[in-house]
Amino acid sequence: MTKRIAAFGAALLATTALTATTLNAETLRWARAAEALTLDPHSQNEGPTTTLMHQIYEPLVLNDMTGAMVPTLATSWEPSADNPNVWVFQIREGVTFHGGETFDASDVVFSLNRAMQETSNFKELLSGVVEVRATGDYTVEIETDGPNPLLPNNLTNIMMMDEGWTTENGSENVQDYAGGEDTFAARNVNGTGPFVLESRTPDTETVLNRNEGYWGADEYPMDITQIVFTPIQNPATRLAAFLGGEVDFIQDVPVQDLERVEAADGIGLLSGPQNRVIFFGMNVGDDDLTLDDVEGENPLANPLVRQAMNIAINREAIQQIVMRGQSAPAGVLSPPPVNGWTAELDEYPAYDIEAAQALMAEAGYPDGFTIQLDCPNDRYVNDEAICQAAVGMFAQLGITVNLSALPRAQHFPLIANLETDFYLLGWGVPTYDAEYIFNFLYHGRAEGRGSWNGTRFDNPEMNEMIVSLSSETDLEARNGTIADLFAMAEEELIYLPIHNQVLNWGISDAWSSLVDADDQVLFKYFELN
Question: Do 421 and 366 form a contact (C-beta atoms < 8 A)?
């Protein structure tokens, strides 16, 4: 039947027009707060973008919705018997791109080399790679600068592109998103995935159709024939669309409305702890800050100030009031499922304003200072509300915080371009290993690492230890290095952890799915009830 998606309210009408879409019983209408930033699969390593990419493109290996690693465009992988620095991947035969091109080893070599470019947000995952080579039409060897036991884990979000299509359309280079570049690959796609792009109007609607020639048609339910994706930033509008039946699946049920969804007929909740920690980052490296009122010095470079700010955050109040219980206060930049996490590390400091004020006085800032906090308003659960709460908490130290809340499309480039001194960020760990945290967030911006480190922190000793994680095969020694790195990170305190998120998906009773701790929806697994 044909059904026009209703106007969801004045807020939505002010920003977008929802188009008429042909729907049937196997169409799934999906909404979430955030839109994909780009269609270039190697440009932006961030959740909503990667989620859309997973429907269209595919990696060699995949974390399924239980977190297990499963074969995808590679059928098997193992270390070489001849060289411990080499992994050998057998590539799936009989796979074609949406444009009809044959997928083979040359596309793997091209894609991985492309993902290692400077403008790629995925380069850290391949920073130890020395060479990618095809040794047959369907065999690829990846050589690293030492034995790398976790290399396959690092490939689960790195998508394969067709070399011919990409080069013919002038997209050999990864889009420089932070630099504001627009490219053909940022607006067009050609993957091997379970769904084909039919149409897209950014920030309004994206329509995907089932790939009838999909190689995995007999291995996955593939019950969805069409996906209609509508980004709806406003929580009330998004919920109204779900409660009213205009949307079948939303990834971010507002925490204040969980009981309404649970009580409603025909819909339900899928809930669970998320593999994501929310935190504040601080510019600790510059001699002077741009957006503060302290001339000639950087108050955030003073460890006493950072300690004061850390104990001025009332994490339990944020949990209870802002998050309505839907968070777990955190003391470390690692979610619990990640290798290296311990309960001891995750102990967070008690909220203590008097002690914090004493630390500020000892640091030489008894009256505080003024600074800007940059916050996204459409990426994490109640992100702007978290920042608003923190503004009041820091005010008790005399720190006047000017809050700037922007859509993540404008917020993330501030971090990438080192244009923010104080910011909110969230971090998931799809490899389930702490190397991913240290590679992206603690390593200095060199050697193809540290791309999400907006703190200007650069410690040569830590850098060397981080690099060693990729080639250490003695797991006991490797875990010892991770423990040492966490101890050093705790001492430096360049980030202020707030909490781990909790996932709340809303889904129509017509559909069944597992909830993925990575918030990584894979629609090929959805089943029609």
Answer: no
